[in-house]
Fold this protein.
Amino acid sequence: MGLKIALLQLLPKGTLSGQLKKGKAACMQAKEMGADIALFPEMWSDGYTLPQDHLELEALSIDVDSQFVQSFRNIACQLQMAIGITFLEKHDPKPFNSIILFDRNGMERLHYSKVHTCDFDAEKVLSSGDDFYVVDLDIGRDTVKVGSMICFDREFPESARILMLKGAEVILAPNACPMEINRLSALRTRAYENMLAIATCNYPKGQPDCNGHSTVFDGVAWLEDEPGVRDMCIFEAPEEEGVYLAEIDMDLLRNYREHEVMGNKYRHPDKYGILIGYAKRAEGHEKR
């Protein structure tokens, strides 16, 4: 079974209504291309604009029940295609950087807020999400286990590892940064070590501090009956704006996960006490 993901590598329009109009047109194009899922880049609602003034930030943030978000619910239902819409989510005391995944019937399947916010930079004005989630996404022909991580989440092995342990087969990763060799290598590594696919959608060249190169790594490093290794990067977009389609061979991935050795196959969690100990010490420090 092939899972077709459209990466909506788009330049922002500068207004919420402009983002909605352009996003809707991109979703329609994705459907015409045969996509099962359309994925937006990070914080599409405002084109990853993060004013440091509280009132300006609050004015840009929107609710889950806003017309903008709910319009994509309706579009997903009309097109019979899942849509991962990203937005600056209104939240007290500080907004979230969020994605909602609507399925092909317009049902909300996943609502995730970025855990690893870039607190060293502009995202210090945001709240951090609490957890990672995996859901069953019905695409009509099959059901796929899907999770999400956003941009900087990629740099922490725990993000993808938790999603893998919760059963994820595919990770949707909205993005807004330069995709260079080291960040691409991190995505490749997350896919490799967890035997899962990662689809990343970035902003194109022309958006400040972005350069396109949206990617899909399918997590299959080698094939049982073929010598050598294979390139897990099954798709990499150019720098230019566009709607790009990539297809993940889910049968290939699932067979690989059944027979190969990464993921959860040979882990020794009983030996990882330092990780648990650090978490408990951090919790105790916060309580003090």
